[in-house]
C-alpha cells in the first residue's frame, strides 16, 4: 500500500482577520474605537465640567468658548456629549458583562449536562422572561438607586435569558457531534471536552449576541435618562435628548449631537455583529448567479435514430461557476436507452453519475451550466423545452425515484394527497378516480394496508414503505422512462431486495425504460440489461451487463469489480497475536 | 480457551421513557458475547437492530441497565467517570461518519495529540508519535497541519483510525467504519484494518450491516436482530451456511455481483419468502 495523496489547499484565516477584511466591519470598528477614545479622552478635549451650568450661556450658539453651543440650562454641549459617551459605553458594557456572566455559565452547564439542572434553569429563565423589563427597571430606579449603572446591571440580568438560550442551544448541538463522543472515548474529562470542543463553538455566536445586547442596552439607557431618571450629575446622551426636547422650538440643533452619537454607536455595534456572522459563513466571494443555461449546440437530424430509442444523450457537459473559474462535473457523456431497457449508470462518488441523471430530468441547480450535442427523449428535444413543457414531461413521460425516500416526501402533507395531486394534474383525473388509482398503486407496490398509508403522514411510515410510496408515485402517470438515483442505497438489505423485485416487475409490466444510478455491482447484476461505467465525469465503458462481469474492457471497471468483497476468502483463525499474553494495561492503572 | 478480552453477559440497555410512568424503551434484550485478544468479532444487523447501541454500551456511552460487561475479567459497565477514563487506554472507537467524527476546527495534529496530552505525554513525544501513526495509516507527514475538511472520506477515516491507535488499545469498536466509503476506498481501508490487527494484535468489535464486509474482516460473526443475538459462529459458517432463518434471509437478500449466481439467489429468496 502506498501513501495516499492529499491535495494541498490554501491557508485558512482566523475569524477576526476574516471579519476585518470586510470593509463594513472595519468601518464599524473604527467608529466604535473613535467613540471609545473620545469618551476616555474627555478631560483632555474639553475644560468644562459637564454638569456645571452658567445661566448666562443658556442656549448659547456655537462659538470658540462652546464649540457645539450650550444647552437649555447653560451647560457646554461638547463636554456633555463626551462625558455622556462614558455613561453609554459603561452602561452597555455592564449590561453585556452581567448578561454573559449570568447566562453564559448557566447555558453551558444546562446544555452540557441537561437533566434536573437544565429543567430548573429553564424554569427560572422563563420566569425572568415573563417579567416586563422596563417596569422592573423603573421600580429599581425609584426604590433602590438613581444610578443608571445600577439599572444597566438589572438590564443585564433581564437579558441573561437570551444569552442562556443561545449558548444552551449551541452547546446541545455540539454535544451530539460524534467527535465529542470520540473525545470522551479518548479519555478526556468533562472539563477538557468543554474547553477543547464545546466552548470554541460557542464563542462566535456569543460575540454576535454581545454586540446586539450592547446596542439594545445603550438604547434603553437613553430611554430611561430621557424620562428624567438617573442622577443629575451623570451626563448622558438620553438626558441631553431630554433637554433638547424641552427646547425643541428654540434650539432644534441640540437634538442633533446626542442623536448622531447614539445612532452611530448603536449602528456600528449592530452592523459589527452582522459582519461577524457573515464572516462565519461560506468563505470567498460568491460566484455571480446566472440563470440556468441549457444549450443545445447543434441539433443533429433525428433521422438516424432507431425506432425503439427512448433516450438519447450525446456530448452532455455540466459545469458550475466557481470563484476560480468553472468546475466541470460531467465532461461529454453519451448514452442511449431503448424502450423497456434497463441501463445501469455505475460509478463512485463524484463520478458525475447523479449529475447525468439529473440533467435528463432538468433538475440541476439553477447555476448549473448544461450543454449537449443532443438530449432527446422519445423524439423530443429536452434542452430546448420551456419549464411548462418540461413539467408535463416529468411525471408523465419520465418518472423519478430518489435516493432518500424520507426527504423526498413533504412532511406537511398526507401521503394520499402527495400521490393524488400529480395524477390530477397530469392525467386530468377527478379526485375520486385519482384516489382509487392511488390506492390500487399502493397495493401494487406491496403495501399491506393501503387505506392506512394513504391517510398517513410521511413520518408515520418506515423508510422502506416510503420508498414504495415514491415508486408508486413515479409510475402513477405511466412514464415511459424511470430514472432511479441509488433507489436502494438508504434501505436495509432485506428491504432492498424487495424493492428491487418490485422495480423489476413494474418495469416489465409497463415495458418502461430505466436509468438506474448505483455504485453496487450486486444491484447491477440483479436488474440491469446494459451498464455504463463512469469515472471523473466521463463514461469509460458501456457494455451489455453480462459482458461487464465476464470480460470487463476498461482497467477501471476491472479495478471496481476487484474491489467488491463478495466471494472473497473468509478470514481464518486469528494468527499472529503479539501482545496477546501481556497483562492488560487498564487493569494495572 | 484463554480468558476473553471482552465479555458481555446478558447485557440489557434501556432508555427511559419520555414523560412520567411510561415504559422504558428496551434496545438490547440480554446480549451475551465474547471477544478474544487479537480477534475480530463481526456484528451484523439491520437498522434498528441495536448494533450501534451495543457498541456504545461497550464504550460506556450507553446506559447498561442489566447484565454485565467484563473487560479482562473485570466488570466495567458501571464504572465511575475517572475509572472509565483510565479504560480509554485500552478500548477505542472508529465511528461510521468520517465527516462528523473529527472536530472541524482542529488540525490533524491537534486531533491526534489530544488523547496523548491528556495522559501527560510530553508534547514533543506526542508529535513524534503522530508521525509514526500517520505512517501506519499511510498518510503523509504534512497531513498533520491540515484541517479535516481538506481530506476525502477515506483519508478522514484513516485519521480516525490513527486517533484510535494513539494509545495502543487492545480493543477497537468499529461502528460501520467503511459504510460511507466508495467501493475501492472501502477495500483499501478494510485491508488497513487487517494489517494493523496483524501487526499489533488489537481486537475489533466490527459493527456493520454488510455481510460481505463482515466476512472479509471477521474471524467470528454474531447476528443481531431486534435487540437479540440470533446466531453466532465462525465467519465462514455464518456467511455461507447460516442456521437461523433471519441470517438466511439476510444472506439471500444481499445481491452478488455475478448475474447467474444473483439470479439463483433471487429465485431461492423468492421461493423462501413464498413458503
From TrEMBL, chain A:
**InterPro entries membership:** AAA+_ATPase, ABC_Ni/Peptide_Import, ABC_transporter-like_ATP-bd, ABC_transporter-like_CS, MetI-like, MetI-like_sf, P-loop_NTPase
**The UniProt record lists the keyword Transferase:** no
Domain of life of the source = Bacteria
Record localization = Cell membrane; Membrane
**What are the record keywords, sorted?**
ATP-binding, Cell membrane, Membrane, Nucleotide-binding, Transmembrane, Transmembrane helix, Transport
Record's bilayer topology term: Multi-pass membrane protein; Peripheral membrane protein
Q: Where is this region: Disordered?
A: 565-589
- Per UniProt, residues of the ABC transporter domain are 311-561
Which Gene3D superfamilies did the record assign?
Answer: MetI-like, P-loop containing nucleotide triphosphate hydrolases
Q: Which SUPFAM superfamilies match?
A: MetI-like (SSF161098), P-loop containing nucleoside triphosphate hydrolases (SSF52540)
The portions of this protein that span the membrane are 24-45, 89-113, 120-144, 150-167, 202-229, 249-272
Q: What is its main location?
A: membrane
Pfam families, A to Z:
ABC_tran, BPD_transp_1
Q: ABC transmembrane type-1 domain: which residues?
A: 85-273
Q: Which family does it belong to?
A: Belongs to the ABC transporter superfamily.
Q: Which PANTHER family match?
A: DIPEPTIDE TRANSPORT ATP-BINDING PROTEIN DPPD (PTHR43297:SF2), OLIGOPEPTIDE TRANSPORT ATP-BINDING PROTEIN APPD (PTHR43297)
List the protein's name: Dipeptide/oligopeptide/nickel ABC transporter permease/ATP-binding protein
What is the organism field in this record? Streptomyces endocoffeicus
Q: Upper taxonomic classification of the species?
A: Bacteria, Bacillati, Actinomycetota, Actinomycetes, Kitasatosporales
Automatic annotation (TrEMBL), chain B:
Report the residue ranges that make up the ABC transporter domain in this protein. 6-251
UniProt keyword Zinc present: no
Per UniProt, which keywords does this protein have? ATP-binding, Nucleotide-binding, Transport
InterPro entries to which the protein is assigned, alphabetical: AAA+_ATPase, ABC_transp_ATP-bind, ABC_transporter-like_ATP-bd, ABC_transporter-like_CS, P-loop_NTPase
Which GO molecular-function terms appear in the entry? ATP binding
Per UniProt, what is one Pfam family of this protein?
Answer: ABC_tran
Name of protein:
ABC transporter ATP-binding protein
Give the family per the record: Belongs to the ABC transporter superfamily.
